[in-house]
Amino acid sequence: MTCQPKRYGRNGLTSVAMPSAQPQTVINASILLIDDDQEMTEMLVEYLQRSYFSATTENDGLMALQRLEKERFDLIILDVMLPSLDGFEVLKNIRKSLNTPVIMLTARGDDVDSILGLELGADDYLSKPFSPRHLIARMRAVLRRTERAQDIGGKILSAGDLALNTTTLSASIRGTPLELTGTEFRLLESLMEPPGRTHSREYLAERVLGRSYSAYDRSIDTHVSNLRRKIGNIGTPAIEIKNIRGAGYLLICEKKVGAR
C-alpha cells in the first residue's frame, strides 16, 4: 500500500522531528519500505515524503516479493523480522533477479544479522533504533553511488581476465559474467582504480559506502569476502584480492589495469 502522511510515535526510532519544508518539488527516488511495524513505517513514510521521496510500504515478505514482480523501485529498505518470510529470505529472492539497492534494518548490536545481510547482497544496513535523519543520509549515499555509476559513460576497465563496463555496470572474467550487487561492483571498480595500489578501508568506505570508516564496521570486509567468493566460483587463481595487514586491500591480476 502507498501511505499518506500521518503522525505517529517513535517505535523503533530515536527521533521523530520532521524535516522542515524545502523549496523543492521533484521526487528524489521511489522507495519500497518492507517492515511489519505499521506505526513506525507510517511515521517513516511521512518523514520520507517530507524529504521528497516517493514511499510505498509492505508489511509481509511474500507480499513484498509479489509487488516487486510488478513494480520497480530505486531503493528497498528491508527489515529482518517479517511474517511469512524473514528479511533474509526476501533478500535472497530479490537478488535472484534484481540489483536494486537494499538497506537492511537489523536489531541493535546484532552483528550476525548485519553481516549475514551483507553476505546475501544487501548494500548497507542500519541498526534499530535509528534516527530517521540517519536513515535518509544512508539512503542518499546509496542512491548517489548508484547515480554516479550510471552517469559514467563509455569506460571499460580491464585487468588480466577481468573486465568491468561502467556503462552497463557489468563485470566478467574471460567472458563469464560476474553477478554483482551495485555495492560489489563499485568496490571492484575502486580496487581497479588507480591500478596496482593498496586501498585502505577508510578510502573504500568513503568511496564505496559514502561514509567514514568505523573500526567496528565490518561492511567493507564482508563485501570483499563476497567478491572473493564470486570470483573464486568462476575458478581463476590469477585474480586475487589480497589483504595487506595494516594497510588495506590490493587487487592482484596477471597484468596491469588499464582502460581501453
Descriptive account of the structure:
With 260 residues, the chain is α/β, with parallel strands linked by helices. The protein contains 8 helices and 12 strands. The protein folds into 2 domains: 30-149, Response regulator (Rossmann fold, 3-Layer(aba) Sandwich); 152-259, Arc Repressor Mutant, subunit A. The protein is globular, with a radius of gyration of 19 Å.
Short synopsis of the structure:
The protein is an alpha/beta fold and 260 residues long. The protein has helices at 38-50, 61-70, 87-95, 111-119, 132-151, 182-192, 201-209, 219-234; strands at 30-34, 54-58, 75-79, 102-107, 124-128, 156-159, 162-165, 170-173, 176-178, 240-244, 248-252, 258-259.
- Poorly predicted parts: 1-10, 21-26, 256-260
N-to-C SSE string, H for helix and E for strand: EHEHEHEHEHEEEEHHHEEE
Largest sheet: 5 strands, parallel
Known CATH architecture of the largest domain: 3-Layer(aba) Sandwich
Q: What separation lies between the terminal Cα atoms? A: 47 Å
State mean pLDDT (0 to 100 scale).
Answer: 84
